[in-house]
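lol forgot to send this yesterday, sorry. struct tokens for the thing we talked abt
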């Protein structure tokens, strides 16, 4: 059963009344279409999921990159934009059978993350373990919170 929002009718005729309903239906149509494309119908649509955690003195970025090796990933920082690029290649296709279902995405990808504050570029560390990329970005001294002593007079 589909729930629909109740909207009271006004006494006056409004020629634009149904435009909001039409807009909602169009948005739903496009959302559903793009969601389906992201499920494997669009080749080269792989984009890793990313978590960004802010600590007092650094940021930690974790990106899920299952099936990739360290050599398949490139991490760069430029003007407070962290870029994670790489390529996830298709496995060799078998000649014996045909795909019943193919949902595992492949292709090149790039995630660009804007950092809210400046970081120490020379102290960035990155590691790759069990298909998860960990990037530690130490905040610059200007970006770290400073406690201000309040004087009482």
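and heres what i got for the seq, position by position
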């Amino acid at each position: 059963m589909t729930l629909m929002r109740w909207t009271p009718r006004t006494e006056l005729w409004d020629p634009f009344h149904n435009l909001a309903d039409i807009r909602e239906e169009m948005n739903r149509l496009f959302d559903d279409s793009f969601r389906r494309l992201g499920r494997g119908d669009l080749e080269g649509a792989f984009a890793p999921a990313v978590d960004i955690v802010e600590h007092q003195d650094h940021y930690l970025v974790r990106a899920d990159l299952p099936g990739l090796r360290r050599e398949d990933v490139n991490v760069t920082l430029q003007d407070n934009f962290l870029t994670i690029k790489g390529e996830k290649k298709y496995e060799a296709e078998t000649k014996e059978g045909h795909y019943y279902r193919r949902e595992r995405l492949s292709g090149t990808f790039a995630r660009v993350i804007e950092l809210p504050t400046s970081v120490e570029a020379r102290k960035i560390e990155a590691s790759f373990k069990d298909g998860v990329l960990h990037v530690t970005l130490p905040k610059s001294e200007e970006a770290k919170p400073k406690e201000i002593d309040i004087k009482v007079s």
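The domain at 50-91+104-138 is CATH 2.60.40.790 (Immunoglobulin-like). anyway ping me if u want another try
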